[in-house]
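Lecture notes, continued. The same structure-token format from the folding unit now serves as the input rather than the output. Read the line below as a description of shape only.
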């Protein structure tokens, strides 16, 4: 699906820094200024995981060229919903996309004719929130993004912790229910099957014929037409079934966060992604469950759980920030070695 871009201001001498967030349902590209403001966007739908990788690549290329609107491109940061290798070259696996060891950075760099930085989408969102948003001023933070699935990232002393393979922080695929619901990753009982946009919609669809809800009329009586944003709108309006869905998803979110806090003891936890648009309808149950599930909660400082400040643009803002921090304008090489050893950002 093609959507017109908001046009960027014309820049005669300086090239644009563009961030691209690639999720399970959409590609969102944006021109980002040095202070983190998004001044133009373009969007495309992603075709899912049952297509050739080139089809997804085409959607990225179109969105970036659309938002650039003929202006020169200084660099592009790509936030990918998948496992990105330590060198920032390949998407090794993406549960909701067809990338399997795909050399995404090289392909896109060739097609755009501009330097490209590639990282996991949650890592990029964490960088955005640490540089400009809810995690600014902290030493350590955990980022949880709830969209089609769950993305996560670890920030330690202002640097993304990527791990040996570049795949640290994939908490959405921790097993929380042995022999539980099947997951797109091939496993069962993954956290994201119980706390995500998909989980939210599944909860409502299973009960829509059993309870009074505005979602029955909104969906035309077809549960398959229900979407996450529809559930959010209904919950904000006070619909009981939609609110029950957020309560369920929020409590599962709190269970997972409690486990992560026990492991990492961060300064704060930031929750972003489209599902977080519900605010306290989601985060209220999550905070309550985290505090009750966290070991030794009464004997420690329990970290605050913040809603992301950059909203759905956190990933692309962070991707653009990484591009600025790790690429020298006019050069096609990553500064100071691989992406995993990039200099720390200064918030």
């Amino acid at each position: 699906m093609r959507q017109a871009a908001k046009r960027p201001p014309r820049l005669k001498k300086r090239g644009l820094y563009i961030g691209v967030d690639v999720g399970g349902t959409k590609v969102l590209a944006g021109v980002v200024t040095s202070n983190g403001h998004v001044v133009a966007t373009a969007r495309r739908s992603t075709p899912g995981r049952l297509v050739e990788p080139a089809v997804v690549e085409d959607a990225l290329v179109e969105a970036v060229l659309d938002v650039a609107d003929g202006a020169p491109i200084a660099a592009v940061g790509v936030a990918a919903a998948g496992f990105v290798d330590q060198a920032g070259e390949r998407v090794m696996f993406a549960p909701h996309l067809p990338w399997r060891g795909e050399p995404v950075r090289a392909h896109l760099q060739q097609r755009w004719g501009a330097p490209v930085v590639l990282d996991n989408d949650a890592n990029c969102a964490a960088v955005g929130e640490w540089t400009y948003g809810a995690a600014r001023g902290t030493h350590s933070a955990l980022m949880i993004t709830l969209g089609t699935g769950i993305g996560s990232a670890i920030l330690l002393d202002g640097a993304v912790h990527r791990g040996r393979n570049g795949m640290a922080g994939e908490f959405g695929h921790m097993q929380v229910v042995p022999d539980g619901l099947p997951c797109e990753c091939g496993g069962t009982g993954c956290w994201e099957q119980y706390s995500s946009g998909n989980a939210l919609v599944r909860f409502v669809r299973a009960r829509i014929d059993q309870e009074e809800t505005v979602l029955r009329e909104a969906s035309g009586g077809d549960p398959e037409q229900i979407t996450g944003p529809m559930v959010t709108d209904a919950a904000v309006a006070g619909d009981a079934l939609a609110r029950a869905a957020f309560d369920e998803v929020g409590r599962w979110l709190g269970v997972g966060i409690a486990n992560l806090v026990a492991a990492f003891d961060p300064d704060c936890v930031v929750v972003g992604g489209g599902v977080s648009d519900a605010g306290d309808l989601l985060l209220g149950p999550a905070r309550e469950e985290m505090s009750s599930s966290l070991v030794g909660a009464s004997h420690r400082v329990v970290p605050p759980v913040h809603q992301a400040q950059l909203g759905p643009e956190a990933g692309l803002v962070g991707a653009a920030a990484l591009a600025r921090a790790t690429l020298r304008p006019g050069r096609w090489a990553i500064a100071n070695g691989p992406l995993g050893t990039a200099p720390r950002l200064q918030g």
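Point for the exam: DSSP finds nine helices and 13 strands in the chain.
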